[in-house]
Amino acid sequence: MNVLRPVVYDAGPLIAAERNHAAFWRAHRSYLTAGGLPLAPAPVVAQAWRDGARQAQLARILNGCEVPVLDHALARRVGALLGQAATSDPVDGTVALLAADLGAVIVTSDPGDIQHLLDRLGPVGKRAEVTPLH
Fold first, then answer.
1. pLDDT reported for residue 2
2. Domains of the chain (ranges, CATH numbers)
3. pLDDT score of 49
4. Which of these, 31, 39, 97, 125, is most buried using a 10 Å CB contact count?
């Protein structure tokens, strides 16, 4: 039995979708066809979204994603992680924590930043895997 691993998108993949990056779109469609529903956390959407009238491809990719919210509890965990890691990007922090919680694959254009955060999570951070956007 092959269990499909969760996938979390950082802002880089959303920007790649908007720029009609063919390899990314193929990978996204493959994941959907296999029964997956990638996650694009709400802060990631906020980072990429600027003008819905001019971002048709971004709107299209988001129709094929789940958008988890950043609630109070997660926001506090993100803040604590950023403090431990001596960084300040709450978007990256949200991606790292959500992926670690789910044991997900992270598709990102900033693999070093995300890995730094996962490393600060200790054994829980090792449950997530960083995949650079190509």
1. 62
2. 7-132 (3.40.50.1010)
3. 95
4. 97
